[in-house]
Every structure is written in C-alpha cells, then in structure tokens.
C-alpha cells in the first residue's frame, strides 16, 4: 500500500473509533465521553455495567412489609426494549388455586394452617413518570411498558412501591411462629425481579411443584431492612454495610455486587457463630435450642467452601451465610446466602446425614447456579447435576473412601435401578416431574453418574480443569444446555467418543 493510503485508512479508523466510543458512552444519562487521561476519571464517568436493585423494606414485626425499589435497568441486550417483565413470585400465594405444590405437600408447607400472601404493586414509574403497568399470568408477572424505550447500552430508572404479605408457610417465602412469641421468616424470591431476556425473548415461567423455579441475571444490590425492635436479627445476602436507629425502627443495610438474587431471613430467635476460611467469613444463624445443628452447618459450610475453592476456583465474595429457617423441601441456595430447614437441625445424628449433605450441596450451588447461571425451570440438570456431583466430591475429599462409600450407598446405589426404569430423562424440564423422588433421582443422581463417567474416562485432573475453565468461561453469565454441550465437545477429549454423548444426551 502507498503511504498516503495508509495515513487515510488510519485516520478513518481513529474517527470511527471515537464516534463509536461517543455513541457508547454518550447516550445514557447524558454522560460525557470519558477522557483517556487518567484511570480514575474514566471510572467516574462510566455508566453501570449491569442492573442495580436498591430496595428499602419496612417490616411491621408481624407479616407485612412496605417496600420501595429503585431499579436501574441497564440494557445489555442487543435490542431496544419497549417493555420490561418482572417476576412477582410472592403472588403464587395470592390465591389457593395458584399454589403449585403437590397435594401431598400441602400439610408440609402449611403445618400451622393454610395461609395466603402476595405482593401488591402500588405504583410504578419510569424516570419519574407514571407507567401503565399491568399484571399477567395470574398476577405472577408484572408488565411494565416503557414510555421511553431503552436502546441497547442505555439505562433507565424504574421505581416501584409495593406491599408484601408473607404467608404462614414453611417455604422460601413464608414464616412460622413458635414458643411464646418467636418467629422465623424466610424472604426468598420476595421482590419484583427482572425476567431474563435471551435470544430475543423473555423467560416468564411460573413456579412448579418441584425444583427451584427462578432464572435471573447478575446484578448489584443494596437492600435495607427496617425492623420494629432490636429483638429481630436480619440475616441476608451480601455484607452488612451499616446499621442505625431511625424514626421508623432499626435499620440494617446490606450490599453486594454481582449476584443473581437477594434473600434474607428474619428472626427474633437467632444466635450466630462465625468462622473464616481462605479469607471468607462464614456466619451460621440458628435458634439457640438448635445450637448443635447451627455449629454443624457452620462446620460443613467451612469445609465445603475450602474444598470447592481449591477444586473449582475461589469464591469471589467476602461472606457466606447459612440460616436456619422453615423450608419444607430442605435446603435452598441463594447467592452468598443459604436457607436450611429447621427440622434438619434437630436430627439425632447430624454428621453424614441430611444436614451435612444439604449444606455441602447448597455451598456448591454458590458456583453452579450463582456464578454460572442457567434456566433452572427448563434445564435444571445444568446446575443440579454438577452441584450434586460436587456434593459427592465433598464427602470423598473430606472423609476419603469411607465418605465416598457412605454417600454412594445412601444417595446413588438405592436410585440406579429407579433411574433405569423411569420414563423421565435427566434433561427434562421441571413440569414433567411428578414427585420429589423422581426429580431427585433423574436430575441430581444422574448428574453424579454423568460426571463420574467423565472422570473415569478423562481422569480427575482433566475433570477439575474442565470445571475451572467452565467457570471462567461462563462466570456471571447464563449458560444453556446447547452451550454446555458445545463447550464440552470443543475440549476434544479423546476418551469422550460419540457413545458417551449418545449415552447421556440422547434419551
Ligand atoms: Zn440443588
């Protein structure tokens, strides 16, 4: 090329690069294009990279919350959005017809009598202007048409005000009373959470009778809880940033970046104990009468976190909490926060039984569900399979061969024949499963068998390498089954031939 042509080409490129940057940074919030002078200046002017939930919840001390939510929407999709959709999971409790539990589970879910709850929207605004919102799918989806459509890479503020009524249920959203005046409340899936928009469409699935029915994107959170008396302890996702006394009550402000959901438990009967491993603080919240279980949960969480840090890559948050709550299916993972059913804390033999299995399982979900997310309603095997294999791996690493044997004899050996004779497949969506045991066998235990098969073919070193690179590639994203299969095939492990893929992925 001639020198003059090169100079013209380079100039055109520079102009295009500046034009691109200006468009990228100039549009949202009228922010100036960042100067390239200093790093600090650049950071000051950068718009948020992901959605932000800023929530203020005032608790009446019984079962109601008045809540304000400022949601900063960052359009990280390639499309202009004319509307947004939020899941209103609490509204599965707003009518007896909507509660999806199996009939046999009703008594387990409502041992203190049937009870309704829900989330009532009072007001929605976009950038200060009223929005003509509506509810669909039996009030379980909030539709927010946007007066100002939001282009790709632009941001917009959505303000909501709502009242929350918590049902007296043993569920991840619910509470139970006990003793003279004691109560413990689970606040999981309790606020309007933006649906996932992928491949040009919104995922709007409702709750099912089995499994974890949520699917969401990574976001930043600041959540304040105001409680009427200092008898209440608030255990929550993230890190306690400040606490103070206001005219409305005792205020606890929790905050954390880059998590997929935010949960809490509130009780006037909590004691706590903490440990630190690899610089991460773990806190166990438990009822004083269940101190033995509280310390067991803490101990398991500590060992599991250490084992998984080494096997998969380090947990990137400063804290993890595990709280005794009332949740009839057992344990429930939330980002940086685990809810564990109170019944597990009261078992005679706490070691190597359901409390230990559940606690290790929910710790593994911090990697497989929170860091690497997926559609848990339609492709639950993606996170449950690898998480249950991680659980088996915990028993093996912590206790050696006896740990592995005892895990397999309790969870796997009893289930293998059931899987062979069952019509369901590990890759089925939640709505096809007709019982918890069928779901556990197919989706969890098949995961153990799948990764065991992989380990026996490619070796443990390669399997751990696979986990680490899977984490690195999909960290803070949502992975689909197709992406998972492609990622695995692209590794070109010689020992994984067509028969391996046919055996596991073609029912
Ligand atoms: Zn799980």
- Class computed from helices, strands and strand pairing: alpha+beta
Please identify the top-level CATH class of the largest domain. Answer: Mainly Beta
Radius of gyration: 24 Å
Proportion of residues in helical segments? 25-40%
- CATH homologous superfamily of the largest domain? tricorn interacting facor f3 domain
Distance from first to last alpha carbon: 58 Å
Please indicate the count of domains: 3
Q: Label the CATH architecture of the largest domain.
A: Sandwich
Mean pLDDT: 92
Strand order of the largest sheet: 5-4-8-2-1-14-17-16
What is the oligomeric state here? single chain
What's the story with the biggest beta sheet?
8 strands, mixed
Instruction: Give the overall silhouette.
Output: globular
List unreliable stretches of 5+ residues.
Answer: 12-38
Bound molecules: zinc ion
Q: Number of helix segments?
A: 12
* Total count of strands: 25
Instruction: Fill in the CATH topology of the largest domain.
Output: Immunoglobulin-like
Give the amount of beta strand, in percent: 25-35%
Write structural notes for this entry.
It is a single chain. With 507 residues, the protein is of the alpha+beta class. It folds into three domains: 3-45, no CATH class; 50-268, Immunoglobulin-like (Sandwich), CATH 2.60.40; 373-505, Neutral Protease Domain 2 (Neutral Protease, domain 2), CATH 1.10.390. Helix content is 32%, strand content 30%. It has twelve helices and 25 strands. The protein has helices at 3-26, 39-45, 106-109, 291-312, 354-364, 381-399, 401-412, 416-421, 436-458, 460-474, 481-489, 498-505, and strands at 52-59, 64-74, 81-87, 118-126, 129-130, 134-136, 141-150, 155-165, 173-178, 182-187, 193-194, 197-198, 201-202, 219-227, 233-236, 239-246, 249-259, 264-267, 271-277, 280-286, 319-325, 331-334, 337-341, 372-374, 477-479. An eight-stranded mixed sheet has the order 5-4-8-2-1-14-17-16, with no helix packed on it. The chain has a five-stranded mixed sheet with strand order 19-20-21-23-22, with helices on one face. It has a four-stranded antiparallel sheet with strand order 6-7-3-11, with no helix packed on it. α4 (291-312) packs parallel to α5, α5 (354-364) crosses α6 (381-399) and α9 (436-458) packs across α10 (460-474). The longest helix is centred in the first third of the chain and has 24 residues, at 3-26. Bound molecules: zinc ion (ZN). Residues 361, 365, 384, 387 line the site of zinc ion (ZN). Residues 361, 365, 384, 387 line the site of zinc ion.
């Amino acid at each position: 090329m001639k020198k003059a042509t090169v100079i013209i080409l380079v100039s055109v490129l520079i102009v295009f690069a500046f034009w691109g940057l200006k468009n990228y940074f100039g549009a949202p919030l009228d922010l100036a294009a960042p100067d390239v002078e200093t790093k600090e200046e650049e950071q000051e002017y950068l718009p948020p990279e992901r959605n932000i939930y800023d929530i203020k919840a005032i608790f009446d001390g019984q079962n109601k919350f008045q809540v304000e939510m400022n949601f900063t929407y960052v359009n990280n999709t390639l499309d202009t959005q004319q509307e947004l959709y939020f899941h209103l999971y609490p509204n599965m409790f707003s009518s007896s017809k909507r509660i999806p539990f199996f009939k046999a589970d009703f008594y387990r879910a409502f041992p203190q009598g049937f009870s309704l709850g829900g989330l009532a929207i009072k007001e929605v605004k976009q950038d200060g202007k009223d929005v003509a919102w509506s509810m669909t799918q039996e009030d379980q989806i909030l539709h927010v048409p946007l007066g100002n459509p939001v282009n790709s890479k632009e941001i917009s503020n959505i303000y909501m005000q709502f009242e929350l009524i918590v049902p007296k249920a043993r569920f991840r959203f619910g509470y139970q009373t006990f003793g003279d005046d004691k109560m413990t409340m689970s606040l999981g899936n309790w606020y309007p959470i933006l649906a996932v928009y992928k491949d040009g469409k919104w995922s709007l699935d409702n709750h099912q009778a089995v499994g974890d029915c949520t699917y969401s994107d990574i976001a930043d959170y600041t959540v304040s809880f105001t409680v009427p008396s200092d008898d209440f302890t608030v255990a929550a996702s993230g890190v306690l940033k400040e606490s103070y006394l206001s005219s409305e009550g005792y205020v606890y402000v929790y905050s954390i970046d880059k998590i997929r959901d935010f949960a809490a438990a509130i009780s006037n009967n909590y004691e706590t104990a903490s440990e630190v491993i690899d610089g991460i603080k773990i806190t166990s919240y438990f009822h004083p009468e269940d101190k033995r279980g509280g310390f067991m949960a803490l101990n398991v969480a500590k060992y599991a976190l250490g084992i998984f840090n080494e096997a998969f890559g380090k947990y990137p948050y400063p804290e993890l909490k595990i709280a005794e709550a009332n949740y009839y299916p057992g344990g429930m993972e939330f980002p940086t926060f685990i809810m564990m059913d109170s019944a597990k804390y009261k078992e005679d033999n706490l070691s190597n039984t359901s409390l230990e299995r559940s606690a290790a399982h929910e710790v593994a979900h911090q990697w497989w569900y929170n860091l690497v997310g997926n559609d848990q309603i339609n492709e639950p095997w993606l996170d449950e399979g690898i998480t249950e294999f991680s659980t088996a791996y915990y028993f093996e690493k912590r206790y050696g061969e006896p740990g592995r044997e005892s895990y397999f004899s309790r969870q796997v050996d009893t289930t293998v024949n059931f899987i062979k004779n069952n019509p369901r497949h590990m890759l089925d969506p939640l709505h096809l499963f007709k019982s918890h045991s069928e779901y556990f066998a197919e989706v969890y235990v098949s995961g153990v068998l799948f990764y065991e098969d992989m380990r026996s073919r490619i070796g443990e070193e390669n399997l751990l390498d696979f986990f680490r690179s899977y984490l690195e590639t999909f960290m803070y994203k949502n992975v689909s089954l197709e992406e998972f299969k492609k990622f695995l095939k692209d590794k070109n492990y010689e020992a994984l031939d067509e028969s391996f893929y046919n055996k596991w992925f073609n029912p």
